[in-house]
Amino acid sequence: MSGPISASDYVEHFDPELPHHRVWLLVVLEMCFSSSCAMLLAFLKPGVLTGTNGDDQYLARVGQFGDTTDAAAQIRTLASYGVKARFSNQASFQTLEQQIAVGIPVPCDYLHRGPVSSPAGGGHWLIVVGINATHVIVHDPLGEADLVNGTTLGGSARFCRYSRANFGRRWLVEGDGSGWAVQAEA
């Protein structure tokens, strides 16, 4: 198992100081998939996204391939930048361990609402940048999550430590090997 990947290109997908983010609040709340894939791209291809909100550049390109919530559009967008990736709905903690061991962070979708005993919601994407025996280490574009209660605490969620037990209940809802993830190649 590996420690966290040093990923300096963390992006937050809602900046209330930017007028276009205030106007597009409903769209922004669906940007987590794009923001997480943009962080993957920024790690694998440093400098390809520029400025403090590089995920806006990525989002513009996603629009050429489909909706921000469509996995195929995200995979085609990554490919357009030269990143070979695939969507999986059969990922596990072993998948994360393997990817992190070769230095590749992993965008993951999990149910982020409701109590941990009964996760709910439409899902939320973050990127796993490290993993150990007890925790996953993530960058979460929405801010730090309260995995026990299913709320968002906000603030910065760079290198946030989420317990494997609580994250697993929300990510592997249908059992081991049922996690949604984007797996990229180096």
Cα-based radius of gyration, to the nearest Å:
15 Å
Major pleated sheet:
6 strands, antiparallel
CATH architecture: Alpha-Beta Complex
If you consult CATH, what is the topology? Cathepsin B, Chain A
CATH C-level: Alpha Beta
Helix count from the secondary structure assignment: 7
CATH homologous superfamily designation? Cysteine proteinases
The stretches of 5 or more residues where confidence is low (pLDDT under 50) are 5-28
Q: Total domains, how many?
A: 1
Mean pLDDT: 85
- Helix and strand run: HHHHHEHEEEEEEHE
Strands, count: 8
What class, by secondary structure content? alpha+beta
What strand order characterises the main sheet? 1-8-2-3-4-7
Strand content: 15-25%
Described by the principal axes of the CA atoms, the overall outline is: globular
Report on this structure:
By secondary structure, the protein is an alpha+beta fold. The protein has a single domain (19-184), classed as Cathepsin B, Chain A, CATH 3.90.70.10. Helices cover 33% and strands 23% of the residues. The protein contains 7 helices and 8 strands; from the N terminus they run H-H-H-H-H-E-H-E-E-E-E-E-E-H-E. The strands form 2 sheets. It has a 6-stranded antiparallel sheet, sandwiched between helices. Strands 5-6 form a two-stranded antiparallel ribbon. Strand 3 (124-131) and strand 4 (135-139) form a beta hairpin. It is globular, with a radius of gyration of 15 Å. Residues 5-28 have low confidence and may be disordered.
